[in-house]
Amino acid sequence: MPSDRDRALVAFWISSGVRASELLGVRVRDADPGRQVITVVRKGNRSVQEVPASPDAFVYLRIYQEQMRGLVPPGRTQPLWWTLRRPYRPLTYHAAHRMFERVNASLGVNWTLHALRHTAAQRMAADPELPLTHVQAVLGHASLTTTERYLIPGRDAVVEQVLAHYARQAARRTRPTPAPPPGPTYDPRSLETLWGRPGSV
Question: pLDDT tier at 196 (50, 70, 90 boundaries)?
Fold first, then answer.
């Protein structure tokens, strides 16, 4: 990616699972690197929610902010995301979408901004140590049923896991059969107690 701004945007989208428009609406005061959360206004019900994001996202954000220092208006209520060329303007959804189209073209792929949210959701839902209700809260789903859709594995994950299953089966077939344990041994003193000492009859 050509800029740290774009790296920060993608890192936030793919780690936090927030919608593209929700992240673009974030202001300077809404990013808290110390607690590793961003505050977004949810699409639909307009509720305000803190959402965690990856350490990498905040590293790229810090670099981008240093690069833009003195070029954009200061202040905690100012937009967090700006265009990179003069005249500097708040970054809109359409501008971010065009940026992502350029990323697609350079990589030869056809991803969408929503696909990043989908990827984040699948990764979180696949973690057995992360309760699905927590994933629901992070994604801002009103219904757990909506979150459960992300439990359905993608095609590549299915192929990978089934191939791993075949490999485990093959490994079990080629594994040498362990030798049976040695037969039981007896303490002569126990036999003497059971049958009596010689000549004692």
Answer: low
For residue 10, the tally of other CB atoms under 10 A from its CB is 20
- The answer to whether the pTM exceeds 0.90 is no
Compute the distance between CA of residue 139 and CA of residue 146 in angstroms, rounded to an integer: 10
pLDDT in tens, 155-169: 888 888 899 999 999
Q: How far is CA 15 from CA 12, 19, 38, 109, in A?
A: 5, 11, 12, 20
Dmax (CA) for the chain in angstroms is 114
**CA dist., res. 30 & res. 40, Å (int):** 7
Distance of alpha carbon 177 from alpha carbon 71, whole angstroms: 71
Q: Are 145 and 123 in contact (CB under 8 A)?
A: no
**Amino acid (1-letter code) at residue 113:** L
Cis peptide preceding 73, ω within 30 of 0: no
Sheet holding 31-32, edge to edge: 31-32, 37-41, 48-52
Q: Is the dihedral of CA 3, 4, 5, 6 positive or negative?
A: positive
Q: Encode 87-122: b = buried (16+ Cβ within 10 Å), e = exposed.
A: eeeebeeebbeebbeeeeeeeeeeeebeebbbbbbb
What residues does 41 pair with on adjacent strands? 48
